[in-house]
Amino acid sequence: MACEAAREVKDPFKRLMKRSSMPPLIIGVMMQVFQQFTGINAIMFYAPVLFQTVGFKNDASLLSSVITGLVNVFSTLVSIYGVDRVGRRKLLLQACVQMFISQTAIGAILLVHLKGSNSLDEGLAGLVVVLVCLFVMSFAWSWGPLGWLIPSETFPLEIRTSGFACAVSSNMLFTFIIAQAFLSMMCHMRAFIFFFFAAWIVAMGLFVLFLLPETKNVPIDAMVERVWKQHPVWKRFMDDYDGKEGVKNVGMII
Questions:
Q1: 26-232 maps to which CATH number?
Q2: Can you say how many angstroms the Cα of residue 157 is from the centroid of all Cα atoms in its chain?
């Protein structure tokens, strides 16, 4: 029904620039940008390099990368099970706390113990792997899948296609930027790279706390009335919203 309604809408990108379209557009784009600034792609792309840096040999660093990949896959199942039971905001906020602790702990360990020898003893290196797994785990049940889910369900029908296109483009752009920049940043910032991402995680938590509405059990066609017009911040943007076209088309299809 959403596809049929979208086909009837004229100038979806023009509608996307309206004031009433800003809340879902901002949410959609920022969810994708923040997803990259958790540091997850940096860690997943360069896990072997990271583990070699803390003292693992080649084979062990590759094995550790496989372990973090498996943690990523299986932790996603938690989100599949819990997203409509627990809610989006709770998963995101819990993950922000866990990711912040993991990133700062990794940064602190590397800052204190990596200075002199450029390697860690076996116990500390193992602890870094555990912390990386905890970080990946929390990402995989929150900002990983929900970074895609929330933009897909927050746009009104009449701008859903164009809005989600902008959100996905933001993801691709910042994936490229982080992937290109991370290795140089790690070489120059060393342990402070983890504090850099931890600071972003704080910003992400505040964004969720104050600006991200809960969309659990809200149908797409009811998003404007039940979410945006009720939110203490975003309701100010909805004075020029006219969703009659999209609603009329869905009604006709039904």
A1: 1.20.1250.20
A2: 23
250: phi then psi, degrees, rounded to nearest 5:
-65, -40
* C-alpha distance from residue 20 to each of 3, 60, 240 (Å): 21, 52, 6
Q: Spell out the alpha helix ranges (H) of the chain.
A: 2-8, 12-16, 22-37, 40-45, 47-53, 58-86, 88-113, 122-140, 143-154, 160-189, 192-211, 223, 244-253
* CA–CA separation, 120 and 128 (whole Å): 9
Cβ of 37: how many Cβ atoms within 10 Å? 21
Residue 249, pLDDT > 50, answer no
d(CA 226, CA 183): 44
Chain centroid to CA 21: 21
pLDDT for position 47: 72
> Is pLDDT larger for residue 117 or for residue 232?
232
Going from the C-alpha of 169 to that of each of 43, 74, 147, 245, the distances in angstroms are 21, 27, 13, 27
- Which pair of tokens denotes residue 12? 């979806």
Name the DSSP letter for residue 225. Answer: I
pLDDT digits (tens, 9 = 90+) for 115-158: 666 667 777 878 888 888 999 999 999 999 999 999 988 888 77
Tokens 């600006």: give the residue. 211
Give the Cα separation of 89 and 215 in Å (integer). 9
CA distance 107 to 102: 9
The residue extents of the domains of the chain are 26-232
